Amino acid sequence: MKTLQRTLTIVKPDAVRKNAVGDIIEQFEKNNFRILAMKMLEINKHQAEQFYAVHAGRPFYNSLTDFMSSGPIVALALEKEEAIADLRKLMGATNPANAEEGTIRKKWATNIEHNAIHGSDAEDTARFELSFFFAGYELAK
Ligand code: CDP
Ligand code: MG
User: What is the pTM of this model?
Assistant: First the structure.
């Protein structure tokens, strides 16, 4: 049985700079994700470090958190049956060189770091990431 899930996605600073926000949101809607909440904002280095705490100590952590705090991002809460896996599929592989045709990263990512979009990878990370950006009252009923 398929379960209704919520997931957190971020249009990363590189994609915002490329004016890809509208195109990426259109992909969410065309693929039957319901938008529960959406905001454009900038996060600082400390906030980026908190968000990506699972990657602390990885060689790309410092550069990644610099990048994520380098300009505006758009955070969205999405809902769909199997939202977490379906969003990961729509995003494509982390490294755009391995991303399938038709995925958001294939179309918009520049490289493995500047890869256009974030998506939660599991139910527990989705819960943490949704609450990082949105309070319960901000989500559509
Ligand atoms: O975003 P995703 O879940 O596909 O990948 P991740 O392994 O959780 O890594 C988080 C983010 O770190 C990636 O989306 C990239 O922006 C960055 N990264 C990187 O710069 N270099 C790597 N070798 C791996 C990830
Ligand atoms: Mg990840």
Answer: 0.98
